[in-house]
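Q: Can I see a sequence and its folded structure?
A: Here is a first one.
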Amino acid sequence: MQVKYLKEQLILQIPPHWTIRQLKQTLQSKTAIHPDRQKLMAANKKFDDTTTIGSMGLKGPPYCFMLVGTPDHKMVVTAEVVDVFDDFELDYWPDEGEIQDKLQREESLRNAIATTQINLISPIQPTKKLLVLDLDQTLFDFSGRRQTQTLSETMRPGLVEFLTNVYKFYNIAIWSATAWTWLEIKLIEFDLLPNNNFQFTFVLDKSSMFSVKSLRNGKMITHSVKPLAIIWSKLPQFNETNTLHVDDLSRNFVFNPKSGIKISPFKYSPETARADRELFYLQKYLCAIANVPDVTKLDHSKWKDYKL
């Protein structure tokens, strides 16, 4: 059996009558990840801890799994005390002429391309476009956890339905300004990774972002960006014509304004949770334009008013 974990390929001798739980206990000794925090994925198969390896109908041997989880020694604080920096008030979309030091910007992009590695979580659907989604305050408000009784309340209304429906038309990727350790915890805690209704193609964290300087109202502002060219350099089947980027911070797609879709930030409160319908409208828009040959020909700033 082969289990892929980060950059490692773990080779195990596991009898077919063993359960997934027994496999997880074995993996704990090799990865220091508690079985309750392990997420195993295998060729779109549905299974739980009581499922036996031999009953899964996997191709092999060797049987192949992918493992996601955080080792015990990296669980330095609990998710209850995580603070998410709220920088919405600092958001703006600088014009091309406002971005300073273009040579430095280009060098930063080259460095980011050189250091970024994209590990596919699920196979690319070759006939479908790429949808890149921000996480915090776009899909949920993790900072709102203190105001809720359950974790699911901090999910933006309609999130699972949104991901399920757009997955029929898009390869879905997550790009968050969060470190991978916390990003992984968030996706697992929200039961988004893995999920039987949709799959993420890959996930990027803040290590693939870099900062640029822009002139705003006569003042120099430093802010981070998410250049899609990093993805396109690694996955050449995607480009500006078939990639969309949804974020609550418009400056994150300043390098690719024709691919960006600005969504209002989701800041949890009982009132906003009842009123928020952003993902329902966005779902309709994304499904409606799924077959448009070149998404850069659309004015995404008016996505809420789009009509077929």
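Q: Show me another, different protein.
A: A second, unrelated one:
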Amino acid sequence: MTEKQAEGLSDNLQPNDDSQPSKQSPLQKAIFDIIFGYESRAGRWFDIALIALILSSVTAVLADSVASIHLNYGTIIYRLKWTFTLIFTLEYFLRIYSTTRKRAYLFSFYGIIDLCSILPTYLAFIFPSAAYLLVIRILRVLRIFRILKLFRYIGETNLLYAALLQARRKIFVFLFSVIVLIVIFGALMFIIEGPANGFINIPASIYWAIVTITTVGYGDITPQTPLGQFVAAFAMICGYAIIAVPTGIIGAELMQQVQRSGQRTNSVNSTCSGCQSTNHDLDARFCKFCGKDVIRS
């Protein structure tokens, strides 16, 4: 994927110069260039201001969850949250108004995030605790990638995604095996330790097994008998082995994807001096079809 193609993925509807239909009014086009665009100075400043508002609104929500701050500044924060929500609501409807690809925006990743970032304030009338869901606005800071034009790295992102996709069956088998192992350890510890030592039931023992195998080790439930401690030690050792497995699976798939990508790139930049074929390996010095030298550009 080229940088130009990658940049075209912004908001899933960033157009080329000729992709916006002629029916778009001058006002819509002006708003579109500011809100969706990032090449113009106004568009860049709009995105910077938007990100500042997003960070400020998330900070207000986080601060409001602290009892002392809520007690002293609750009214001010409440007004700020409504101010931010009204601004984001206006921005959301301006995005819908300015683009001629309304359906594409509404169902795009950013379109859904934009909607979810304003709904909690209105839902708070019915469900007061929903106001804290406003922290979802932090996802909108992903737009900073558009400003910094980091979409040029979308190729590397695609490599990682392809590696995870190729490894999904292996990861599923691995996770299933881990679940079986955790259940076995949990049931075993319930039999060995029992309710007297905190292992009141098998689900609680499975919780202990998860905490132990993942090497978190909260310490809220601990084995007391020598046999239970031996099983716990064995579970800890298994935990270290388990951590390495998904790393190896994903790492191997990622390496294969990198090699495939390199071969595709190399096939374009290398040509046989004899038969003019371009399908050559990365380290090929001679053509595998005719034996002539491979010329690299």
